[in-house]
Amino acid sequence: MTTTTTTIQSRRDTTANWKSVNPKPKAGELCYETDLFKRAKIGDGSTNWNSLKHLLDSDEMAFAAFINGRYEGKNLATVHATEISGYSNVYAWLEARRSAGNFEGINVNDYIDIAHSGGTCGGYTINSGTKRARIAGINMYKGFWDGVNNVSIGNHIDFFFDTGFANIPMQTSNNNNGTSENQNPWKSSIVYAVANGVNNLSTNAYNSVSHGVDASGGGIVDLLPDGLKAVLKPQVFWLPKRYSANGLLTESNSWEATDMGKLRAYSEVELNGSPIHSMCKNASDGVAYDIGGQPMQYPLFKYFAGNPGHRANGAHFWTSSCVGGSSSRFCTVLLNGYADAIDASSTVVSARLGFRI
């Protein structure tokens, strides 16, 4: 008796080629993607490839793992290397995907590793290095109104660095009020200026106390790769005002549409899901102005709430929210991941920032 060994191979190609050719697989034919998430489809003899469903969609698998806190995240530059090779860099590829609204194979907690230069920004030393930026959310604010540019916010991907750039105080004094030029505490802060390379130095504040810093010579944003800088989007929110020429305020007194910059700290609500130390109300109308613009908790923090080390990564970091009932403190996340409030002049809190593509 003769034994014959036969190897059966499935029909296979890259994801891009499957989509481009868009063949009509035979009934029962197993068709396999050789890259990305190694997915497969089975033909029915009448449907073209692009209309067939995957046997088990990778994005659904990633989401199921994510909401259970088990999705580790993937390096986008590695997983999508073949597709990215058709672009000048990973950032141009992300911009193309964002513009097309195509987020297939791009999930919250996936990341890119970003090599940045070092330098002095507003008098603060930023060391060169490589930082991991994770996707915090996708299209979180799509359809919201951009009150600065008077347009509806379109497709976007928001990232958050795993670590901070340096320990930088919010102000040189314990003051969380704004100035006459920048009445929002974040816009008048040192961290904002150093992050975005602007000059917001001002003494046009109550009691002529100095706010901000002159970082017009260059900010952290200028230390990022050119490819990333080319696709960064300003982030506009309705932010609280906390300013009076007649005295320090412990609550916000108004709000307005504000460009937070291309690099920004996330708000306490976006990190924790609810106001904890930032709950402050205007005495005249009871509106919680520090929650203006309806910020939402990013899924990166929501689904990993049981893993505070993932959120704080062993170092205190600032939020963009100031504390309710206080004229001196900003909200922070402690090194163990817990919400807290720290004096604005503290030099042990890191500038950990997010950006939008």
Give a verbal description of the structure.
The chain has 357 residues and is α+β, with helices and mostly antiparallel strands. It folds into 2 domains: 11-56; 131-356, no CATH class. Helices cover 17% and strands 20% of the residues. The protein has helices at residues 15-21, 58-67, 76-79, 81-84, 90-100, 190-196, 226-229, 268-272, 299-302, 308-312, and strands at 11-13, 30-33, 40-42, 111-116, 119-121, 124-126, 129-138, 145-146, 151-152, 157-161, 236-241, 254-259, 317-322, 329-333, 339-343, 354-356. The strands form 6 sheets. It has a 4-stranded antiparallel β-sheet. Strands 1-2-3 form a 3-stranded mixed β-sheet. The chain has a 3-stranded antiparallel β-sheet with strand order 13-14-15. β14 (329-333) and β15 form a beta hairpin. It is elongated, with a radius of gyration of 24 Å. The termini are far apart. 41% of the residues are buried. The mean pLDDT is 89.
What's the main sheet like? 4 strands, antiparallel
SS summary, helix count: 10
State the low-pLDDT regions, or none.
none
Identify the strand order in the major beta sheet.
4-7-10-16
Globally, the shape reads elongated
Mean pLDDT across all residues, rounded?
A: 89
Proportion in helices? 10-25%
In terms of structural class, how would the helical and strand content be classed?
A: alpha+beta
Number of strands: 16
Order of helices and strands: EHEEHHHHEEEEEEEHHEEHHHEEEE
Terminal Cα span? 65 Å
Strand portion: 15-25%
Radius of gyration: 24 Å
Whole-number tally of structural domains: 2
